[in-house]
Amino acid sequence: MIKAYSLAELFTALKEPLSENLSIGLVPTMGALHEGHASLVTTAKKSCNFVITSVFINPTQFTNQDDLINYPKTENHDIALLNSLGCDLVFFPNASEIYTKDYHFPGIELGFLDQTMEGNSRPGHFQGVCQVVYRLFELTKPNKAFFGLKDFQQVSVIQFMVKHFNLPIEIIPCETCRNESGLALSSRNLRLTEEQKIEALILFNTLIEARKNTREMKPSEVKRKAEESISQSKLKLEYIEIVNPTTLENLKETWCEHARMCIVAYAGEVRLIDNMEIRE
Ligand code: PAF
Asked: Does residue 104 have an active-site annotation?
């Protein structure tokens, strides 16, 4: 596996795959890799000839400085994992090369996609995500890019961005990986105590329960019931929404196909996020 720590090293490593017209797959990450990232790389390996994983903790998408400072860093572990998966290139850029003085992200009007859920809770977050992903696309020139559905709204935003700028890149959404109890894998889980890991399972259990209730209840009732069960736990609920998977519009009275429930709650200081399709 090639390791590139600078743009010069990246461009050198990309010469051959680009000149040979290999299909390039990109898995953008912020490191602290776990089985969820591993499954993105494995999926990418199946349909691309050359797989790049980028590891960059992007400062412009953090709205909470403590979260940025405390974001786990596990470089040696990440390299070993990517190596074992057959990743072809790992790219560890530094911020000064991602955001050079003369680089300018054109910006993107995301409309309602940025005015709900994560957009409301973390103003500016998705502009930061678009800024870095656009830059990574520009630098690595992938044919396909792989993103986990755990960050469901992020996938919607990136799909929108690709259409908006007419980028020749296929976005591949990949299912959320969970541990054997159902907890969605996340780099932030490293900051959970054993007790909090058990408390956090209420998210998964609430989603499963909601899925059972969609036949008899309206979305607003399913949402209320879910809010009740989280409020009885030790987690601090930030929001629950049931949304149309394409527009992210909140569903209240009637269901649409593939309706999705999205939840964010805190276990202590750790912000947990999860979602599930609750109606086929
Ligand atoms: O999902 C993430 O880890 C990040 O938001 C991403 C896509 C790597 C951009 O920094």
From this structure: no
pLDDT digits (tens, 9 = 90+) for 84-111: 999 999 999 999 999 998 888 989 999 9
pTM: 0.95
Question: How much distance in Å is there from the Cα of 244 to the middle of ligand 1?
Answer: 23
200 contacts 230 by C-beta, under 8 angstroms = no
> What separation in Å is there between the alpha carbon of 55 and the centre of ligand 1?
9
Among 40, 91, 154, 159, name the best residue to mutate to test ligand 1's pocket (greatest count of ligand atoms within 8 A of Cβ): 154
Centre a 10 Å sphere on the Cβ of residue 223 and count the other Cβ atoms it contains. 20
Going along the chain from its start, the domains and CATH numbers come out as 2-174 (3.40.50.620), 187-277 (3.30.1300.10)
Return the ligand 1 atom nearest residue 61 CA: 10
Mean pLDDT by 10 residues, the chain (280 residues): 98 98 98 97 98 98 92 96 98 97 92 97 96 98 98 98 98 98 94 96 98 97 98 97 96 98 97 96
| Cβ neighbours around 180 below 10 Å, total | 5
Question: Dihedrals φ, ψ of 131, to 5°?
Answer: -60, -50
**pLDDT tens-digit readout, 165-207:** 999 999 999 999 999 999 999 988 999 999 999 999 999 999 9
Residues with CB under 6 A from ligand 1: 28-30, 58, 61, 129, 132-133, 151, 154
For residue 198, give both structure tokens. 């058990």
Residue 182 Cα to ligand 1 midpoint, Å, equals 22
Q: How far apart are CA 157 and CA 127, in angstroms?
A: 10
